[in-house]
Amino acid sequence: MPDADWLSTHTFHHSAFSDLNLLVEKKQQKNVKISLCFPTLNEEATIAKEIIIMKSELMLRYPLLDEIVVIDSGSTDRTREVAEKYGARVYLASNILPELGDFRGKGENLWKALYVLSGDIIVYIDADIRNIHHRFVYALLGPLLLYDNIRYVKAFYDRPIAYDSTRIKPKGGGRVTELVIRPLFSLFTPELTQIIQPLSGEYAGYRSVFENLAFPLGYGVETSMLLDIYRKWGMDVIAQVDLDKRVHRNQEVLSLGRMAFGIIQTFLKRVEKDGLIGIHTTLHDTMIQFNSEGANYSQNLYEIKDFERPPMIEIDTYTEKFHGRDAS
Amino acid sequence: MDIHDRLQPYLVKLPDYANALKGLRELIITNIILLGQTPAVRAFTKDDNIDSQEENLRAKVFLERLSESGADETSTDSFGNPIALLKGRNPGKKPIICAVHLDSVLPSVDEINYRVTEKGITGRGVADNAAGAGVVLSLPEILRHLGLEFESDLYLLGLPDSLGKKNLKSIREFFLAWEKPIRGAVCLEGMDLGRLSYYSRGMIRAEIHCRTDEGKNSILVINDIVNRLLAVRLPLRPASKIVIGKIGGGIKHGDPALSAALGFEIVSDSRKMVDDVFKKVLDMTESIAYEEQVRIKIEKLSDIDSVRLDYGHPLVKSAISVMESLSIVPEVSSSESELSIFLSQGIPAIAVGVTEIENIHTENAYVAIDPLFKGIAQVLGILIAIDEGACDA
To answer: Is B29–A133 a contact, with Cβ atoms under 8 angstroms apart?
Structure first.
């Protein structure tokens, strides 16, 4: 069963970190560089606002961030142009480490970002947040800068509803979290159920954590990250921060179904590798969904590969750049 | 040296100021977004676990942002109006006020999200008046960035309750609490770059509410009132008009409306004309109430005197010089806003717009980003003019 203390000692509200001068001071004491990374695919509607607010508040007003970088999967709208106009450094994911191939997916962007970002601490923020506020970044940095044991911080949204001083109803996560992830965590890794929104796309951590993680290319990246960090370092290095409300694109249930497929795929692979279950068949990599048009039904097949990138620390060009040696 | 001569060295610098302000682009846009995305409502907020208080959320953001940006003092007056002070070099000089209304004509909603592109910002209330408020919030950092300092203290005043039925409540209350003499004032509006207001026409804004019993139709009564308002004879001089701006009534398509309402303004260069026309409207509605056996009530929402600066006033002439130095074409119009209250207090004041706008009072209101820098340089020029004595004659 989960350690009852973890939730109270490793869960924070963003207001605990609103003293930005203190965070800047701690950053200077620790002598670390901090990078903010936006993985993007067709985000021209929201990316400008995200960059502008972060640059204004966390670079110009409070020197907390050293760089803002956009890693784009090949947007067909003006995402890259708009991001450049407002001062972000913009990369096409396919142009980073091209000798290692080019795949589509958020995980690919996050993984390749490690090679071009310069920070010791990296903040990943989804680029589709309509109500973006700089707390989304500084509150994730707070536990990393103020607590030496914390190495990875995850966001969650909407505060638990308090009925009275003794009864609290946690609001929890979205549909995929409550129907897929939390049941799986409850079955295999109950301690991770304490992560209120394991699929949130906003997290921050030390490079030394991220570079040791394998990155699934698609939907499973957040799940695998939690499982791997928990397995390698335990719950004590993880914290979570309530960022209040997040407004983003609503997803259709069919698209959530494909997301759930990718997550289950990643999860099963991880728990089998850890020896928690044995799978005695080859898992299929196609999600089958149905369309109806009048009396006719048709199948839609979505191939969802469970390919993943190895830990970046195993890539020679990376270790030469960041650790000054050959990985071999 | 007169004000025109004293202003000359600054006028040549204003285009450079506009250019230099591009270095603060992200800060200015962020201020517009964070203020404009905050619902313009009062709510209970809590800073600790002991006490909570009801306050206007935009006023709270206004003060927090100015406090963070290094204003010398921030406070609220006894009516909840947020005020920030940027100290001047000479405590003996009367202060200057830069005022901005923080509310919107559109009903408040819980969720406001602006969209930013390379060219502009789009969203509910951005043109009236998040852009104006965002500029005021940026002034401390703008002045530091440009190395500008005034002789006079500069007060940045946010006005949470201004529009529609609020009838300029905040600025009226501000003057109930304020005791110091004021040197001059600038009122900022998002819309529209080039706008120059230095007079307010006399104005009465009112709503006519009609209620009827079963068998009668309030909408038809209101229709009769509209026809009679349109038939009121108004003189060409003094310029006067009746503006019918709002109408509503009824509940179901198939039921005669038992209630209906009409909103209108009477506007004139002459205050007496406004009063005369309003009396006619009162008589007319009273007669309809008796003739049709319906209940009619007139609710006066706003009542503003006709006040003005002369075109030849140094503040007006200076503002025109400032605009021309930035290649902004002045478009003179009246403003029945905060300006009228400053002028009626005998304080020289003008209202200007800060950028180009579109779709003003819609969900897709838009403000252009590039013209904003000229708009801000214009505000700086006007503040400099006041500081150099444009209001001291």
So the answer is: no
